[in-house]
DNA sequence: CTGTTAGCGCGTTCAA
DNA sequence: TTGAACGCGCTAACAG
């Protein structure tokens, strides 16, 4: 264990002393103020990196009122969707000298309040609240003295700024792909009806079918977000409606189940029936037989966007309010388009 | 967007003024120093929460040298293994008034150095370095003025403190379970030989087999950590060695592939052949047919332990050095023990 | 162009 | 028991 020398960190006055100037001058020199002779600046800079000086952000923040930190308040770290958003945000901030406090409320409102207070008392400059579903969540309210952006789960208050995936257009995108592949008898198996993500995608699916002059085979089948449900539902569908030529699934997990069933029933994918899903979870999609076509929600991009909004707000820009939708992107693989 | 009132945060002197005392007294009163009359303390405390005062941690940190923050330096947020560790650590710290700075180096040494400097300049009180593999990684060195604990990927310097999964005993645990189930002709398919995790588990496997007076069927089959490899390897094995009654896989992904192949070849699991894996990745294990037995590495526990070591070091306890191993735990499901 | 002074918010002497 | 004064490291006024 490196307890090392308590090594009082090198301060600006150390630099100043070495360069033979006052701390004020050293400060100006290092911060690029223009009231300092070039030769002096030179000396200071040299002294600084000779001592490998780095300014103490606490002192700086104390003065500026800004800390250069933001809070990332997640409701769930287990979730598959939170992580990419987190990566995107961390990435965007990291590039901008901002550091990120991570807090996981674990879906508990009490814990969320607790963490919120902790973050505010640390004087974070901004806040990103990442939810685990796309359903609206309670607003943190408006007595928060820093900009707040809601990511993935939008706030239920339209006066807040939220960034969330555009699941309706994602559903449309999926159907348009299947139609472009020549499919006309399309069924839709998806997750829990309680999830806005399931309902929104289904809405997009119906809209696109309608626009193409088609109709869904059977009803939208809502149940669990699980592989097992994909298997069971596909078995029912393919048996009752043998004419189906495409099964659109509400998630990659469901897709995997559907794929399994198609295989069990001796239907070949994609020639006989196409299968596709949502989320583009690579572990599932790229290891399937055949590999799974999917709609990627661009979550990392979503995280970056949220971070940029916070940045903008920090610069005094009015970032507006309401919900901003991030489009998904189609990732075509062998389960809808045969590979030669 | 709550830009709210720029609302200069309430400071200690606001509290002092309201309570009609000096800042010094207010400070003492709120921090439980015992040189202050009870009635005075009372007044100050009331004033404080009337203004909902919370001390500025920057000012406090500037003075005390402690900030109540730690850095979590990960090499990879995508990885399946980093997240649970992170959760465990965040959980342990959160309970103790410590907040966590999250930095993702994305496997890049330059970025790691960059983040390290940033964290140190923010005066974090401690550091947890989370790697993505169990192979030793380069030490950050010993000129770091705060305690450092390496998690998952141990440091290559024995003078550092590292906490990592015990993969050798995990391998042993797996074989012992299979043997307890009456299996005697066991094969082992695993991931890349370049990974210590693969080699360590294989070592434990061989040791346990030896102890049971058994021998592995065929060689340990090293290749990719993928479902695809699981399928291919299982096909080779089960065809060449039809007597195999258990396939032990190096990961749940590989297990899933092996399961698929067993099914394709008409072998029933677990009656005919048992299958099990490592990692206990629930999305994969609980959705398989049958559900997959697996060894859970207790990563969340690992994260908590790492956090506790940092805590201890902060309290001045000598936390020692070397590598500490966290045992795995067997999670039995239907792929090794038939469910009625 | 450079240095002196002041103050960000807090905790800790040391006198009163 | 209380308060005035000092300093943590830094930057922004101002004066020189």
Automatic annotation (TrEMBL), chains A, B:
Gene Ontology molecular-function annotations: DNA-binding transcription factor activity; transcription cis-regulatory region binding
List the keywords (alphabetical): DNA-binding, Transcription, Transcription regulation
The record's annotation in SMART domains points to: HTH_LACI (SM00354)
Quote the InterPro entries the UniProt record gives. Answer: HTH_LacI, Lambda_DNA-bd_dom_sf, Peripla_BP/Lac1_sug-bd_dom, Peripla_BP_I
The record's listing under PROSITE patterns reads: HTH_LACI_1, HTH_LACI_2
Q: Where are the transmembrane segments?
A: none
* Domain HTH lacI-type intervals: 10-64
Know the name of this protein?
LacI family DNA-binding transcriptional regulator
Please name the source species: Cellulomonas humilata
């Amino acid at each position: 264990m490196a307890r090392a020398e308590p090594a009082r960190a090198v301060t600006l006055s150390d630099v100043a002393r070495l360069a033979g100037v006052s701390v004020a001058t050293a400060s100006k020199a290092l911060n690029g103020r223009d009231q300092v002779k070039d030769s002096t600046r030179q000396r200071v800079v040299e002294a600084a990196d000779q001592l490998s000086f780095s300014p103490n952000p606490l002192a700086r923040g104390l003065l500026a009122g800004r800390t250069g930190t933001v809070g990332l308040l997640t409701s769930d770290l287990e979730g598959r969707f939170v992580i990419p958003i987190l990566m995107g945000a961390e990435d965007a901030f990291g590039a901008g000298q901002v550091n990120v406090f991570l807090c996981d409320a674990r879906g508990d409102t009490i814990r969320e309040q607790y963490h919120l207070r902790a973050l505010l008392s640390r004087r974070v400059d901004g806040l990103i609240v990442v939810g685990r579903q796309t359903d609206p969540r309670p607003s943190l309210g408006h007595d928060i003295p820093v900009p707040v952006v809601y990511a993935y789960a939008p706030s239920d208050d339209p006066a807040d700024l939220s960034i969330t995936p555009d699941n309706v257009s994602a559903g449309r995108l999926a159907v348009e792909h299947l139609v472009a592949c020549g499919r006309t008898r399309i069924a839709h198996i998806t997750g829990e009806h309680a999830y806005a993500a399931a309902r929104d995608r289904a809405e997009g699916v119906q809209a696109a079918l309608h626009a193409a002059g088609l109709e869904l085979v059977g009803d939208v089948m809502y149940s669990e977000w699980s592989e097992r449900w994909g298997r069971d539902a596909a078995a029912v569908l393919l048996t009752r409606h043998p004419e189906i030529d495409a099964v659109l699934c509400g998630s990659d997990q469901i897709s995997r189940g559907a794929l399994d069933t198609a295989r069990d029933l001796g239907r070949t994918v994609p020639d006989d029936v196409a299968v596709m899903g949502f989320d583009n979870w690579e572990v599932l999609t790229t290891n399937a037989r055949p590999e799974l076509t999917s709609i990627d929600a661009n979550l990392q991009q979503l995280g970056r966007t949220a971070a940029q909004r916070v940045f903008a707000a920090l610069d005094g820009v009015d970032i507006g309010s309401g919900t901003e939708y991030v489009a998904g992107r189609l990732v075509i693989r062998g389960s809808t388009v045969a590979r030669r």
